[in-house]
Amino acid sequence: MSDYRELYLDSVSHRYGTKQILSSVYLSCKIGETVGLLGRNGSGKSTLLKVIFGTLNPHFKYARLNGKPFKKGYLTGQIAYLPQERFVPLHVKIEKLFHLFVHTHRDLVFSTDFIRDHLRYTADQLSGGLQRLIECFLILYSDASFVLLDEPFSQIAPIYVEEIQDHMQLLKAKKGFIVTDHYYERILEVSDRIVLINNGCNYKITTKEDLALHGYIPSMK
Ligand SMILES: Nc1ncnc2c1ncn2[C@@H]1O[C@H](COP(=O)(O)OP(=O)(O)OP(=O)(O)O)[C@@H](O)[C@H]1O
User: Fold this and answer.
1) Is there an atom of ligand 1 within 6 Å of 44 CB?
2) 64: part of which helix (H) or strand (E)?
3) How are strands ordered across the β-sheet holding 146-150?
4) Keyword annotations for this protein (predicted)?
């Protein structure tokens, strides 16, 4: 049985056409936990996050949130998702976006210097990296208890990656995170445990050697 305050996925299977991408994948995340999701390009990480959020209907999944079965994550109001692709509208003021997405922790996010400095702009007035950073904060600070982050560190300068990590740490008592990125050293730093997707299956990773064993990083000398 799953604990209360847990996102739980079991038996997730999906194929595109005849290509099997996920075969009975299991994944869980509790409040207070950061789960790092790793895997080679095309292994199915984004597919899995889309399945959880509900924008992709898999061939099979068994999903529960706080013990209760759910079909589409976004309908629960408890799951937020940062997709790989840009999602913010270009012509809406950043301040308005934060008013739409963030309620509980708005004061906290508005007290962050680089967010406050950009509130009066629209996304099209910002660089690609800053747009991504704003998107990341909109999702981190949304009211959802479980946050799915697809490549939050890509395009972002190291100084801001540190900021993202710090804010994840700050929010962790109240939220659970599932995060994937190919800056795997960052994923190792920020995560309490690591799950690797390989050949459609999930593997528990405990050491860097495990990552080499599964062919995610070059074998270690
Ligand atoms: N809509 C689609 N139609 C057909 N095939 C798809 C579709 N979306 C993804 N795929 C294929 O499914 C596989 C898994 O894609 P996915 O985006 O989930 O991988 P990923 O692990 O997130 O990869 P990356 O690390 O490169 O972002 C890839 O081979 C991809 O080409």
Assistant:
1) yes
2) strand 60-65
3) 79-82, 146-150, 176-180, 34-38, 193-198, 201-205
4) Amino-acid transport, ATP-binding, Nucleotide-binding, Transport
Cβ 114 under 6 angstroms from ligand 1? no
Residue owning the nearest CA to atom 27 of ligand 1: 41
Query: d(Cα 140, Cα 175) in Å, to the nearest integer?
Result: 9
Residue 194 in tokens: 């690591």
Residue 39 beta carbon below 6 angstroms from any ligand 1 atom: yes
Token readout for 146 is 């479980």
Beta bridge partners of 190: none
Domain 6-213 homologous superfamily, CATH: P-loop containing nucleotide triphosphate hydrolases (3.40.50.300)
Of 54, 33, 173, residue with least CA distance to 105? 173
> Ligand 1 test: best mutation among 43, 49, 182, most atoms within 8 Å of CB?
43
Pocket test for ligand 1, best of 15, 18, 21 (most atoms within 8 A of CB): 21
pTM of the model: 0.96
pLDDT confidence band for 86 (50 / 70 / 90): very high
Ligand 1 and 16: CB distance under 6 A:
yes
pLDDT tens sequence across 129-188: 999 999 999 999 999 999 999 999 999 999 999 999 999 999 999 999 999 999 999 999
